[in-house]
Design brief:
The chain has 234 residues and is α/β, with parallel strands linked by helices. Helix content is 35%, strand content 27%. It has seven helices and nine strands. Strand 2 and strand 3 form a beta hairpin. The longest helix has 20 residues. The radius of gyration is 16 Å and the shape is globular. Bound molecules: hypoxanthine. Hypoxanthine binds next to strand 5, strand 8 and strand 9.
Length: 234
């Protein structure tokens, strides 16, 4: 057991998908895994372990934002020995070349959060994805013909911002989209020498206002989950 996860030792696989929404963890377990068993219900933050194409895989909700996601990722790594962690979530698009329903594979995560900065006084650490996981995810997405972008995302602490000028400015520097978890995941990957990756589907466009219907969101979520699972077992 760890502080926020009640699984017994050995109940969590060393490969895990991390959706923010615990009900999406349940959805993945029910739709993609065989023999899935729930190992966590503390705070309703559901976690399951099952098999995908014969490989043991877990899926764990993390909640929204870096403080919450960082807690789950760190406990999974430190207390349960998880070695490959793939976030599957949504993001708002920033780049004009990115559209709703596209996939973004976050190669790096710019962040305004002090969670990473505080660890490195005097430096701006560059949180980056694991190259092998990223390559596998890209390959799978290409094979399936999913529209996929690879590059920087912005990991923010604030969903509702009064002034988006500086956020929009990042679009001019190739930042593809905005989300709230990748930077801390990549930081923890570096800290504990484990493999981490964030894959996001675009749920809305921050600049054009383009949005998805809930049905469209469900379908693209499935594409992303497939990419995440295939990358993690490769
Ligand atoms: N920020 C802004 N828009 C979004 C986000 C976010 O974190 N996620 C989905 N749309």
């Amino acid at each position: 057991m760890s502080v926020h996860i009640e699984a017994k030792p050995g109940e969590i696989a060393d490969k895990i998908l991390l959706p923010g929404d615990p009900l999406r963890a349940k959805f993945i377990a029910e739709n993609f895994l065989e023999d899935a068993k729930c190992y966590n219900n503390v705070r309703g933050m559901l976690g399951y372990t099952g098999t995908y194409k014969g490989e043991r895989v877990s899926v764990q909700g993390t909640g929204m934002g870096m403080p919450s996601a960082g807690i789950y990722a760190q406990e999974l790594i430190q207390s349960y020995g998880v070695k490959k962690l793939v976030r599957v979530g949504t993001c708002g698009a920033l780049s004009k070349d990115v559209h709703v329903r596209d996939l973004i594979i976050a190669q790096g995560a710019v962040t305004s959060s002090s969670m990473v900065e505080k660890q490195f006084p005097g430096f701006h650490f560059a949180p980056i994805a694991d190259f092998d996981l990223m390559m596998q995810a890209y390959k799978v997405a290409q094979e399936k013909g999913f529209t996929t972008h690879v590059g920087n995302v912005l990991s923010e602490d604030t969903f509702y911002k009064d002034d988006l000028t500086s956020t929009f400015n990042l679009a001019e520097y190739g930042v593809l989209g905005v989300e709230m978890e990748a930077a801390i995941l990549y930081y923890l990957g570096a800290k504990f020498n484990v493999q981490t990756l964030g894959i996001m589907t675009v749920s809305d466009h921050m600049i054009t206002g383009e949005e998805t219907t809930s049905e469209e969101r469900q379908n693209t979520f499935k594409d992303m989950m497939y990419v995440g699972l295939e990358a993690i077992i490769a």
